[in-house]
Amino acid sequence: MLDAIAAQRAAGRAPPPGLSELVCEWGRIGCIGFGGPPAHIALLRELCVTRRDWLSDHEFEDAIAATNLLPGPASTQLAIYCAWRLRGITGAIVGGLSFIVPGLILILALAALFLASSPPTWVLGAGAGSGAAVAAVALQAAASLAPASWRRAATRSRWALYALAGGSSAATMGVWLVLVLLACGAIEVTLRRAQPNHGAAGVHAAPLLAAAVAATGGLLALSWVAFKVGALSYGGGFVIIPLMQHDAVDTYHWMTDGQFLNAVALGQVTPGPVVHTIAVVGYAAAGLGGGLLAATIAFAPSFSFVLIGAERFDRLRANPTVRAFLDGTGPAAIGAIAGAAIPLALALTETWQFAVLATAVLALFALRRGVVLTLVAAGAAGAVASAFGAPLPR
Questions:
Q1: What pLDDT does 46 receive?
Q2: Is 392 part of a structural domain of the chain?
Q3: pLDDT per residue over 52-61, tens digit each?
Q4: Looking at the structure, do residues 75 and 113 belong to the same domain, yes or no?
Q5: Are residues 193 and 80 in the same domain?
Q6: 79 and 111 housed in the same domain
Q7: Mean pLDDT to the nearest integer, 330-343
Q8: Model-level pTM?
Q9: Nearest to 260 by CA among 281, 237, 287
Q10: The domain containing residue 48 runs over which residues?
Q11: Per residue in 302-325, pLDDT tens?
Q12: Residue 97 sits in the same domain as residue 124
């Protein structure tokens, strides 16, 4: 790390920031980072490349490429990695926490409001309205990812099959989604005749064992759900939503369908990564402690991936087996994000919610409005509808 700092100074770039400055700048992005990964990437680029000259354009592009190879919330990993480039392990931990914590505090406060035993009627209406738009947001997320992935596809017929597999599993059997994603990656590796990795069976068997243990419920189940969100979400946080919905609503009954839609909406309208949604699930399962536990477990893999593997990212990007695996999981993840729209839409119960959903589709696709604005408008429409006596989801 000292060599990297010395090279930075030799190249004539600005000296790296102190830890207090790192807290302020990464914390600022954590407070204003509405809009998901595109907004986070733009803010980090403006800070590190344009305004402070801490990283070159080439270094920042390499950072994006490297973190996109990893499962989990890519923009969070990018924030951690950029902080690592500047201040080493300590900087990665400090910068990552500064980026994550502001949104986590806000979403837990909103979870307490929306999941209260007797919330005000306008809160229920706002939640039902914003939740109604979530299926449209899932479609928009998939549509934004698909073109670049399609252009990179080695074989487009297989790309389509992987996307179909991911979409079908997300729409019909969310509990098996992670296995479908891993299977698509493994199939692509096999088809390219990559050398088998005998250690992979142990890695894949571990989640199955954990799933069996987690079937007992309680904090162990919550820990397993949070781990899947943080460590197995190829394609970002949205891909894990159908699995979270199955676990939180159908398997463990921590939430109703309506409350889960609220959780996803809160993850979108608060700053920071959509993975913050797991904190709302944890709050529903075990109160404030459950929310903090779920968030800690969900974000721990991001720190681990960067702290353990940052110095090896260049080799990872060049590894043909890794590239083949990602060429299988990537399309499947995009399909899963689109497929998640089906169970999310089926969770709606009131006629007026479908009207809000249709309006959200129009706003996102035809009018090109932002996700945050669309969800806030949908929430406002729900609050107004409840004030005029519209029926609310049970």
A1: 92
A2: no
A3: 999 988 888 8
A4: no
A5: no
A6: no
A7: 88
A8: 0.80
A9: 281
A10: 2-102
A11: 999 999 988 887 777 778 888 888
A12: no
DSSP string, 87-151: HHHHHHHHHHHHHHHHHHHHHHHHHHHHTSSS--HHHHHHHHHHHHTHHHHHHHHHHHHHHHHHH
Domain boundary (37, 71, 102) is at 102
Per the CB < 8 A criterion, the answer to whether 175 and 346 are in contact is no
Q: Is 151 exposed, middle or buried (0-12, 13-18, 19+ CB in 10 A)?
A: exposed
Domain end among 102, 128, 155: 102
Do 197 and 299 share a domain, yes or no? yes
Please state, in angstroms and rounded to a whole number, the distance separating the CA atoms of residues 211 and 349.
31
236: left (phi over 0), alpha (psi -120 to 50) or beta: left
Give the model confidence (pLDDT) of 172-227 as tens digits: 876 678 788 889 989 999 998 744 444 444 444 444 445 454 555 689 999 999 99
**Rounded CA separation 143/337 (Å):** 9
Number of domains forming the structure of the chain: 2
Hey, is 216 helix, strand or coil?
coil
Neighbours of 295 (CB within 10 A): 28
